[in-house]
Amino acid sequence: QVQLIESGGGLVQAGGSLRLSCTASGRTFSAMGWFRQAPGKEREFVAVRNGFTSGTRYADSVKGRFTISRDNANTVSLQMNSLKPEDTAVYYCAAERAGIGLPTRSADFGSWGQGTQVTVSS
Known about the structure:
Blueprint: E1 3-7, E2 10-13, E3 18-25, E4 31-37, E5 44-50, E6 56-58, E7 66-72, E8 75-80, E9 89-96, E10 111-112, E11 116-121
Parallel strand pairs: 2-11
Antiparallel strand pairs: 1-3, 3-8, 4-5, 4-9, 5-6, 7-8, 9-10, 9-11
């Protein structure tokens, strides 16, 4: 059974940092990434990393502030710096066997974590 277990998140002041981690069990995935969903908004892509190529892709809104890394074959982390109130959302880990691709659509991912809340106060 495939499971994605997230950790991290919480409450931080604007300008602060948080680190999210996600560990997959039951399968190894080439593409692991993060999406987020704010209240009343659609789920949006944040970042993805491919374990085969080490390639990465980021949403424009987080470029230069967030860094995605693969700690090992089954774990992906998201280092979030210079956080803004608009980064407040539930953050979801996502994973897929995508070969060497860097998918960015939620429909491209078949496995999801339960979500972890990130709240940035102004």
